[in-house]
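Meet the record:
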Amino acid sequence: MHKKETSLLHSKIANEMMNYINTYIDTAINIDQMAMEFNISKFHFHRIFKEQMGENIYASIKSIRLQKASNLLITNQASTISKIAFMCGYSSQTSFLRAFKERFCQTPKQWRKGGYKEYSNKILNLCPKISLVKQNYFCMEPEIIKIEKKVAYYIRQKGHGNNSKKTWQKLKAWVYTNNIKEYFQIGIYHDNPIITKPQDCHYLAAIVLNENEIIENTNLPYFNLYSGLCAKFSFEGKYEDILKLIQWVYHYFLPNSAYEATTIPSYIKFSKNDFFDNNGKFVAKYYVPVAFS
């Protein structure tokens, strides 16, 4: 198998692994069973995942569990901490408490009582261009929509922000090379960027085709974009201000709505993307996969 074909195959396997983890994150995920599901040896299973994701699979599972828990502690005020631990795949409250405190430097109880706001502000303060002056999002009413399945071609990177410009320029070259006319651009957050340090965030810059066609002989991997229920929010401003919108969605909208966030990654759909077109501004829609609680 040629190097390009091997790379594309490994990307496909890693994406399917992540989909599997997100789907079954509330269960005791068995790595041996996962390897059997993908019909590869356990050794190659671990090697491919780390090669593609930049971290081992156990670290990814732990991170996804704790990010889900951090959301549920805010949005599901009626649920006990032990119930939330169980909903996130922890077999004991003790192991959950230990892991949560290690990740967020506070207990779930402290987080629920408002510690999440202080923690998130510290993360956002790591972005040198961001201002924590509150934006008036409270008059914003999201649209609840059903997303249809689409094919997305992507470049994966670790870290988000202005470093994304080089990635988007590569995607622009790919669009022109393949003479693609009908498409839109999305940025996918595999980690919640308001509780994950910028350099640690897994981010995908992607081109989504309007028609669900497969481009032959391309050097980019692809996957099927999430299809399901989303809350859609409008955005216009500087790139760093997207983080303030995301913070408002998770800290104010979701806790006071009839919805809760899922483990499916949220994403930005751009109508104007300065990283891509050099037009000086960002105009976009922010999509949060939700479940009706």
